[in-house]
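New to this. Explain these tokens.
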Amino acid sequence: MIRIVIFGLLVVGAIYVPWLVVASVLLGVIDLSAMRTLDWVSVRKYYLKYFLTWWLAPINLLADLVTWSRPKIIPFESLPAACRDEIRAVTEGFDHQAFIDQLAPKVKDKRKAMLFYKWYGRDIDTSIGMPLFHKPYKYVKTIGISVFNERSSLSRHFGPLRLTHRVLYNLNPRQSDDIYIEVDGDRHYWHDGPMLIFDDTYIHQSVNDSDDARYVMFIDIIRSSPHCVIHRLLTFCVELAGAVVFRFHRGFYHVWAFVK
């Protein structure tokens, strides 16, 4: 139904404001041009399923311009020291196995489950208390846990907003080539390293084809910028986005079962 609505809006727009439709499509083409593994199915998804990424292309491309970069994979060492410290504090400041033991009974009957502690700067209360995740951070703006139970995967998809970068940290890495994430053709196996930092507006896919559950922490950090003024601007925009769409945050993850 939503695709029919979008198609209808494009037709109406092409009739009454054709320049706006042409400009929007062209910005989408520029946005997609950075990716090297696109096919027709992915392009169709971008414009008709993950259309929010398309509609946000002007903001995302502007973020590329003011930060002078659009990296796909971000080395941990390239981040500001204060950002690295925050990531270490969040990912290493608790007992991973004890946390998994608390969460496992809540998600054992769900193929894919999601637990949020912070979303675009706004704290979310959960039944598994973790004060560490509710501290105010300069760079860290989203903290959550995603769980793939055995034989669970996501299809190739796009994240919406390039004001942040996504940090994934595997809480229970296993020696298996069946558990990985692929970002625009680059495959990262979790047994090679528990952390991956990437731009999630690139097309990507998480896979768990093993017989074990996969627990991954995901963290959104403010995108690195060459000037403190740009950092403040990006932070303001991220927190504004969180305030505007906070009530609808579950809609961004509609294929997941949410855990409180």
Remarks:
- Residues 40 and 46 are 10 Å apart (CA to CA).
- The radius of gyration is 19 Å.
- The mean pLDDT is 89.
